[in-house]
Every structure is written in structure tokens, then in C-alpha cells.
């Protein structure tokens, strides 16, 4: 029979073994851990000038790329003109509506920057209890202005 001290030592040994495996002290046999990409990079310190400059430049390039994806005023005006031109009657009060077929036609004519907004998913998201299966042109345009 083991003494109480031997039992505590054995328990501590097992605990340490399992803890180290869980913590990563012992390399796991699972290969998928090697494929997990790194998602956190520490911010450069004040004395790491080159890393700070690299971070600033990469952020500037990212923001420039994102701003090129945004619709400018002329493109928004063109989109509104196309939506208004392809509206589907009857109007509900003074609200202009568009059906899915005309929605797709506008999507083809609106240009490459607008293409991301002319999907079935977005149409369905904006579709409310219209008996003709249409969406509000104003609601769609506001959606584009908020998201784009």
C-alpha cells in the first residue's frame, strides 16, 4: 500500500504531465495545428522605426484600396438614374419599386463597382410584403450608400 505522500507525488506527476501536454510543452501528434495561420502580430515598439514605417505604409495601401472600391458621387447618381429608369409600376404611394428582373438589368448596366450589391440575397433581404415581389428603390439605394 502507498503512503499518502507517494499518492500526492504521483498525482502531481500526472497533473504536470497532462498540463504540459495541454499547454503545449509536448508537441502534439495532430498535424492540423501546424496549418493554423498566425493571427496576432504585436505592434512595433518605438525604437523599431522600420517596422513602424512598414505598418504605416501597409495601412495606407489598404485604405487606398478600400477607397477605390467605394462609389463616387457620379457613380451614385448614375445608379439612382438607372434605378429610377427601370422602376416597376404600380407605385405604392410615392414610393418607387423595382422587381427582380429589372433589378438584375440595372445590375448589368451599373458597372463593376456596383455588381456586389445586385445579388439575390440582398434583394431578398430588402423584400417586404409587396404583393408583386418588388423592393423599394429608395431602400435599396440607402442600403448601397450605407454598405458601399
TrEMBL record:
GO CC annotation terms, alphabetical:
centrosome; cytoplasm; spindle
Q: Reply yes or no: does the keyword Cytoplasm apply.
A: yes
Query: Entry's InterPro entries?
Result: PPP2R3C
The subcellular location is: Cytoplasm
Sorted keywords for this record are:
Cytoplasm
Domain of life of the organism in this record? Answer: Eukaryota
* One GO BP: T cell homeostasis
Protein name, entry field: P2R3C phosphatase
Q: What is the lineage of its organism?
A: Eukaryota, Metazoa, Chordata, Craniata, Vertebrata
Name the gene.
Ppp2r3c
